[in-house]
Amino acid sequence: MRPKITIIGAGNVGAQCAYKLAQRDFADLVLLDIVEGVPQGKALDMTQSGSIERFTTKITGTNNYSDIKDSQVVVMTAGLARKPGMSRDDLIHKNAEIVAGVVKQIVEHAPQAVLLMVTNPLDVMTYQALKVSGFPANRVLGMAPLLDAARMQSFIAELAKAPVTEVYAEVMGSHGDLMVPVPRLSTVKGKPITELFTPEQVAGLVKRTTDGGAEIVALLKTGSAYYAPGTAAARMAEAIVRDTKEIVNSCCLLSGEYGLNDVCLGVPTRLGKSGIEEIVTLKLTPEELAALQKAGAAVKNLCGILK
Ligand code: NAI
Ligand code: 2OP
Asked: Where in the chain is the domain with CATH 3.90.110.10?
């Protein structure tokens, strides 16, 4: 029997995530939304592309949580997205309510699943999901640092005139203004960007990465990014289901790592079938560590608003 992955929220990010996974052809998918017809219609459309793309993935569109039974991973994208002028934190109360309602259903119908959060504000919603679910910390994680690193990699590649495949970017911290891109550990063909670019260029890359989501919101005007976010969520779900053990930066609960406690933040993690299998502790400079701790304090403060 094929593994099963559920995607909650059949909007822009959820549909892109589902379609990427469908094309990978290794798991059956359930696409669930609160709006009747939308997940069913999108599932049918994706299924019909299978004969063109040559994939055999079974995709079920539904409004019914009994269909998510036995899912190994549940990707949570349901919630409101940013509009121009809105920060991710503006979404906090409404999305916290949506997350609480959905997570209770996940606990009832797929109690063994690894829960991969996407809904914003990501770090706060990951913590909210962890608390509402009561799942062990390794089974609740969030997608954002992979997206943020992908954005930084594409900006570095553009500036270096290098293929993006030769670029690595290290991005930690929160998915917001207190994101912590780490230029010292970001490289082109193994060479740190701090040795390749001027300090002004490096500062420009850091700023554009931190503002990466807002740049797209300003262009789209009616919503936020979804191709790269959906693809990033699909890649993480695949790493978990296929038990690849690869290191992917993700948002997870810290319990002493980097001097932080009881807060969900982006750090390098090893992904496998039980979710987060290891939190990788990088040796940071005092300035980098201070930036990470500042991000942790801000996220903790926002989680406090929810309590
Ligand atoms: P969207 O508006 O296109 O889709 C959201 C979907 O959620 C809609 O289809 C809606 O009907 C559904 N929904 C709402 N309440 C629901 C409920 N209670 N149960 C089931 N489905 C429900 O929004 P989009 O662009 O897909 O974004 C989704 C979320 O992902 C937003 O919160 C957005 O800010 C976040 N996001 C996070 C990123 C990250 O890096 N973590 C990147 C991009 C988006
Ligand atoms: C993004 O970074 C809005 O979080 C979303 O595109």
From this structure: 145-306
CA distance 231 to 227: 6
Instruction: Say which ligand is closest to the CA of 119.
Output: 1
Contacts of 51 (CB under 8 A, 6+ apart): none
Q: Could you tell me the fold of the domain covering 145-306?
A: L-2-Hydroxyisocaproate Dehydrogenase; Chain A, domain 2 (3.90.110)
For each of the chain's 307 residues, which pLDDT tens digit applies?
A: 999 999 999 999 999 999 999 999 999 999 999 999 999 999 999 999 999 999 999 999 999 999 999 999 999 999 987 777 777 677 899 999 999 999 999 999 999 999 999 999 999 999 999 999 999 999 999 999 999 999 999 999 999 999 999 999 999 999 999 999 999 999 999 999 999 999 999 999 999 999 999 999 999 999 999 999 999 999 999 999 999 999 999 999 999 999 999 999 999 999 999 999 999 999 999 999 999 999 999 999 999 988 7
CATH number of the 4-143 domain: 3.40.50.720
Pairing of strands 167-168, 73-76: unpaired
User: Which residue among the candidates 20, 82, 88, 175 is catalytic per the annotation?
Assistant: 175
> Relative to the alpha carbon of 146, which ligand is closest?
1
**CATH 3.40.50.720-classified regions of the chain:** 4-143
**Residue among 7, 33, 42 to mutate when testing ligand 1 (max atoms within 8 A of CB):** 33
> Residue 27 and residue 17: Cα distance in Å, rounded?
13
Q: How many residues does the chain have?
A: 307
